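Writing this down once: the sequence line spells out the residues, with the fold written below as integer tokens. This is how one looks:
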Amino acid sequence: MEEKEVELSIGDVRSIAQKVLSEVNKVIVGKLDILQNIFIALLAGGHVLLEGVPGVAKTVMAKTFSDTLGCEFKRIQFTPDLLPADIIGTNVYDQKSGKFYLRKGPIFANIVLADEINRAPPKTQSALLECMQEKQVTIEGETHYLPRPFMVLATQNPIELEGTYPLPEAQVDRFFFKLIVDYPNPEEELEILKRKNVAEEAIVEKVASPQIVIAMQEAVKKVYVDDSMFEYIKNIVLRTRNHPQILLGASTRASIVLLYASKARAAILGRDFVIPDDIKSLAFPVLNHRIILKPEAELEGISAGRIINEILEEVEVPA
């Protein structure tokens, strides 16, 4: 039996987004900007790379977010001995029927947490490339489509690099956003302790479903983008390619991601049109993993964030 299609307005998108973030905040203290950006990436059809030290609730954040959306969640712990078949699945022989059947891997879920993705070797990491880009997997020449919606939330530890395999640029570029999950501030740390002191864990309410998320994605596509906003995105990305301290600037994919993400941000804030603030607020998570600084700039301690802020100040904002 086919699911009945759901149609949502921009107002509906904003209302559901507020409910989702409110529910997640029952479990996660602070991190509202991180949660909002994860939601934006989901509505824009993208994936997110979460970078932060262990113990800052990256896994809990992903699981709670999925529960609130009513989506199927799977977690893959990446290790050096993990094989591609452990992710996408494999054909298994059934002795009773005398036939092969597909035993699906954990990638067949709506939201997949790739925990410590840089601990697996490149061959295993590359198993995610087709999944992330094409939303499908190929097993022994046969194509299998992944469920909708589909999103990969990958985590990596920026400090402990021994025994890890850095993600190749081609794969890093597949992530819509790279979000830095930092330590909580003193007030948030205190609130976390108080919540953990309570015997019962907070229970989040399911406020959406995969069908509703798909309807929200369709609603986001209808957000209006003025020609001046296209120009603004183009000028920001082009500036990364001719900046004196940038070795490798952002590709065309960065422009497209910035466009889609800006439309999603406008929708969850209740607007059916994009404004410059949407683009400016998303420039860092979109660009920070897509630009490579020159060695001399890194030696001077210049960060990608500082360069991106300079670019945003230099590029003329549309009226």
About this structure: The CA atoms of residues 29 and 188 lie 6 Å apart. The chain is about 45% helix and 15% strand. The mean pLDDT is 86.
